[in-house]
Amino acid sequence: RIPLIIDTDPGVDDAFAIALALHSPEVEILAVTATYGNVSLARTAANVQRILALAGRADVPTAPGAARPLIHEQAEVAPDWHGEDGLGLRSRDYPNVDAIGQHTALSVKAEILRRSPIPVTIAVLGPMTNIALLLAIHPELAPKIGRIVAMGGSLGLGNTRGAGEFNIYADPEAAHRVLAQSEVPVTLVPLDMTMSCWAGAEWLDMLSSAGPRCATLVRTADLYREVFRERYGQDAVVLHDMLAMIEVVAPGTLAVTPQPISVDCTLGPERGRTTSGTGVGPSVDVALEVDSATVLTESLRRISAMR
Ligand code: BDR
Ligand code: CA
Question: From its record, what is one biological process in GO terms (predicted)?
């Protein structure tokens, strides 16, 4: 099985991604670490525990990581999409969670990488701050990372303040380190791809009817669904992080094009923009195409096992 660490900021689509990984026999989830992102770190860290508990997997180690970006004090948040609690104002539907433990995302990841006899995959579903810190503090562990699969970036339009995609805009300096300054193989799943894969009402209804836990997960997306309906005029959602996770559990599902990626770290309107072909760094495998029907059917089949 593929050893896997998930670094995440739940987040509605993060919740679907975690549920997908938990119901994929190809991967062994060694830890789920939290970063600030869609909401504050205190909330994302608790949400990680809530999602694991909902799936009956409270045994999976969790730990909180960065509470803010590397350089800028103000963390970007997205409560308009994910609710103030990060779970679509539905966190009370989830099991109660314990206080967050003593370990940090950094120490948990380092320990896992040190001990693993085979390279570990890291799925990055939020800002890249935790990964940049890991690579900066433990460069000797970089060869133990088999690959990073990250949801983030856009070669076309961004979704946050203009040019940037949320996860990259939240901490462009961290993204620059991971995408343009590290030798770790990275598969990047940008908005160009995710925005072509819409899960509609029928998909959500089928998942909801698989059982009460799945129904809770789908209700988490009610607010998110409402925002999509208002902005795009259709009853369908884009579950960005779930689409990156399908590539983690079934490598090769997404067709990729290797290209250097540069991240705009200026403070102007271009901040957070990811550009292809202009970087001097190593190539990133960028997923630009997706067979939506296959990915949605496969995700539905797997997550439905949560019942
Ligand atoms: C990304 O930003 C977050 O709001 C989502 O969880 C996803 O990781 C999409 O731009
Ligand atoms: Ca996310």
Answer: purine nucleoside catabolic process
Best residue among 160, 240, 242, 245 to mutate for probing ligand 1's pocket (most ligand atoms within 8 Å of CB) is: 240
* Catalytic residue selected from 23, 82, 176, 240: 240
Q: How far apart are CA 68 and CA 237, in angstroms?
A: 28
- Using CA of residue 54, residue 3, residue 26, residue 165, what is the dihedral sign? positive
Query: 3-state DSSP call for residue 306?
Result: helix
Tens of pLDDT, residues 8-17: 999 999 999 9
State yes or no: is 240 an active-site residue. yes
* Residues, CB-to-ion distance under 5 Å, ligand 2: 9, 11, 14, 125-126, 241
Q: Are strands 255-263 and 274-276 parallel, antiparallel or unpaired?
A: antiparallel
Tokens of 243: 């689409």
Model ipTM?
A: 0.98
What is the tens place of the pLDDT at every residue in 196-251?
A: 999 999 999 999 999 999 999 999 999 999 999 999 999 999 999 999 999 999 99
What's at 114, amino acid-wise? R
Torsion over CA: 267, 244, 21, 17 (sign): positive
Do 10 and 91 contact (CB within 8 A), yes or no?
no
